[in-house]
C-alpha cells in the first residue's frame, strides 16, 4: 500500500528556520495518527508543511500524490482539495450562515451546479449530526457545534485525509470527547486522520499511532512503555 503522506529524512522550515530535522513518517489510508509534543515543538509545522505553507529544506516529502519538495504554486489548490483541515478556532465566516459557509468553500473549489452543492452540504451536515443547523449563524452555535461544522467543511471535497490541529483545544472535556468520537467514526469509514494535540488524555483514551515531537525531532512511539513528555 502506498502511503498518503511520506517524509524521509526531511528537514522542515518555518520561515527561514529549521524546526524539525530528519523527519521520517509514513501515513497510510485508514490510519489514525496523533502528533504530540509541547507547545513550540514543531507539531503544527508538520500540518503547515502538508498543506504547502512551510517548505522542505532537504529530504523527501509527499502528500496525496504530490511532491512537497518544490511544489508549484498552481498545484497547491489541487493538493489542498485532497485534504480536509480542522483548526482549533473553527475559522467559520461569522457574517454568513452555516449553509453559506459551506457553499462558499464548494464554489471556491470549483463546484458550480446548485443542486449538487445543496446535496453535498446536506450530506456533510448529516454526517456530523448537524442536519438541522444549516440556517444558523455561527454565533448561534456552541463551541462543539461550531467544530462539528468545521469538520463538515473539511469533508466537503471528500478528502483522503483529515488534518486536525488541536481540534479540541477550545472545548470542554465532554464536548471534546464528542468531537473525538466523530473523528473516530469518520476514520472507521476509511478516512485517514492526522491529529495534533498536547492532551495526553485524548491519545490514551482513543488509541492510534503516535508521533512525538521534542528537541527538534519527531519520531513514532512504538513501545507502550516509552514516556511521552508533554
Explain how this protein is built.
By secondary structure, the chain is of the alpha/beta class. The protein has a domain at 94-158. 32% of the residues lie in helices and 27% in strands. It is built from 7 helices and 10 strands. The protein has a 6-stranded mixed beta sheet, with helices on both faces. The longest helix is centred in the C-terminal third of the chain and has 16 residues, at 173-188. The model has no long low-confidence stretch (mean pLDDT 92).
Structural key phrases:
230 residues; alpha/beta; six-stranded mixed sheet; four-stranded antiparallel sheet; 10 strands
Summarize the structure.
By secondary structure, the protein is of the alpha/beta class. The chain has helices at residues 43-50, 76-81, 98-108, 114-127, 143-155, 173-188, 200-205; strands at residues 5-14, 17-27, 32-37, 56-63, 66-67, 83-86, 161-165, 192-197, 209-214, 217-220.
